[in-house]
# Entry
Amino acid sequence: MSTYDTIIIGAGMSGLAAGIRLAHFDQRVCILERHTRIGGLNSFYRHNGRNYDVGLHAVTNYAPKGAKRGPLTRMLRQLRLAWEELALSPQIGSAICFPGLSLGFNNDFALFESEVGRHFPRQKDNLRRLVAELVDYDQSAQPSARSSAREVVGRLIDDPLLVEMIFCPVLYYGGARQRDMDFGQFCVMFRSIFLEGLARPPAGIRLILKKLVEKFKGLGGELRLRSGVSRIAVKDGAAEKLVLDDGTELEARQVLSSAGWRETLRLCDDAHEAARPQPGRLSLVESISILDTVPQELGLARTIVFFNDSEKFHYERPDDLADLRSGVISSPNNFLYDEPLNEGVVRITAQASYDRWAALDPSAYRLEKLRWYDRLVASAVRFVPDFRSSVIDTDMFTPTTIRRYTGHENGAVYGAPEKRPDGTTHLKNLFVCGTDQGLVGIIGAIISGITVANRHLLK
Amino acid sequence: MQPVTGEEIKKAVVGILADIAPDEDLSSLQDDIPFADQLELDSMDFLDIVMELRKRYRIQIPEEDYPQLASMRSTVEYLQPRLEDV
# Structure
């Protein structure tokens, strides 16, 4: 039986980052990944001869080269990566579009401020007060203080429409709970989208994953694909060994799981249902359209458009297969690359019901994918120029796709509503990182892996 | 072979800082001024200096001694006798 210092479950962003930290400090580390590919939610695949990213719209938390603060800088320093290695190109410009009103934003917060000042003159100072409140808000300094972001933001900004417009991108990019989020989480999300900003490597998620894996393996780390964990054997309040799907048994001094808090507890052979956190309910569906031209040629010049077709933004599991009232339109073409991408792509994301998609038999599933592709695109072209006559290929991902890549129950894209900020579990040598530790996005997930590794596993 | 002269320790610490914070200009680093006043280092960076020292020199630095690592001079003074023992 092999013995490691640390075994990490899941080769997504957080697991790889934790693996790099531990291997850098001379631990014997093995990362186990159930799939044939790494990445988890941020994975990639090939379809009809083209490369696709599973989840990535943009990397949030952008910081320009030379920045000395912020999550991106911290992550680069901790992983000993150079800024250039991620090849991040900043966004061109995005918008939040509600009926008859759109607020533009880019990586310079002054634009968003002036847009708010133009459309909501009375809220300009209130926005400043909100920013002052959240700019240095330290979630870890008040771990037990859970407060409703809607309550706090609603107290500072007294125009309900502007509140809805701010919550639309923040919830879409990181809301694990329905309708609302914890204010600490809101601060992290608001900073990552509006104050820091959006960027993307021209080659998409592959490039980031490749860098992380190279680094991990270069430090002597071991990565095992097709190695799902079926059971964590518990003895005397500790994880004693891991049993893989194929029966292989592995031992480690400590175990770090990025499989999700609930999903990890379920693996433990001592866990009781009552002790497990509730699964998340929010999942997404996404259409991907390949164009015969670049989106800019069709007037689709924005990086991301968050749209909502009424004054109230709903963020909750729909009764139907998907909710067409709102969505996110993103184009990987619309970043400031040195060289343009060779093909145009438009992706449209909307909230969806895992149960409804999971209940379909294979032929109904295929049919509904086609039907909802059309509906999603029809919904989106209410807010951006109609690109349908330029589409040459399509694909769709659904909540069941998210379930397959992440292992999250309900295909809950941002995991369980209740988070585990300190990463501990009921077992003294078992820890969780990733989405359920409370940080989302590429950089957030990486920071999560780093933080939990530093705090608990590098002692 | 372990570095034992103050100059060698200083060089090693600069090497660690260069790895952790490649964007910082270390050429004008003053020995008597705290690192925190010259470089933009957060608490995670600082812990990394401790971890790198542990990794490279197998030296355990207890938490109550961290203030000794505030500036280059105090770091060298703190480390030198401990590295000679190795």
Summary: The first strand of chain A starts at residue 2 and ends at 9. The radius of gyration of chain A is 21 Å.
